[in-house]
Design brief:
By secondary structure, the chain is mostly helical. The chain is globular, with a radius of gyration of 15 Å. 59% of the residues lie in helices and 0% in strands. The protein is built from 5 helices and no strands. The chain has one domain: Four Helix Bundle (Hemerythrin (Met), subunit A), CATH 1.20.120. It starts with 5 loop residues before the first helix and ends with a helix. α1 packs antiparallel against α5 and α2 packs parallel to α5.
């Protein structure tokens, strides 16, 4: 594959920067002394995973719909993304995109669930960064 144009690379970098911020915020949130909003930690973990996958799609000029559905986004990565199967557990993060943000939709998120969400998001983050680095990014 030829190198994408500089505008595409800049857009990929922006997606990854935003993903980095979400992961840092989620991780930092666990250090709160009291009233830790675990639902928001899970939300930012989901956002990290989503944005990393979208960075990959942008790099490959693959159009994606406005969605938070991790399963759908991984499917768009295609057959050449053998690594995507190893990220199947990231699908667990999808509900946090909605239920963690809106009253009446929220489900209680435990500390254990928040930690698991961060662990999954970190795995997605590391995998996508590794894959993109193989393309020289």
């Amino acid at each position: 594959m030829s190198n994408p144009d500089p505008q595409v690379l800049e857009k990929v970098k922006q997606w990854l920067d935003y993903a980095d911020e979400d992961l840092r915020l989620a991780t930092h949130g666990l250090n709160m002394k009291s009233s830790c909003p675990y639902r928001l930690i899970a939300y930012h973990a989901q956002q990290c995973a989503e944005k990393c996958i979208k960075a990959y799609l942008v790099y490959h000029s693959i159009d994606f719909p406005y969605t938070h559905n991790i399963k759908a986004l991984l499917k768009l990565c295609g057959k050449d993304a053998g690594w995507a199967a190893a990220l199947k557990d990231a699908e667990e993060l999808t509900p946090y995109a909605i239920t963690a943000r809106y009253p009446g939709e929220d489900e209680e998120v435990s500390k254990q669930e928040a930690k698991k969400a961060i662990k999954i998001a970190s795995k997605v983050h590391q995998t996508i960064r590794k894959v993109l680095s193989q393309y020289g990014l």
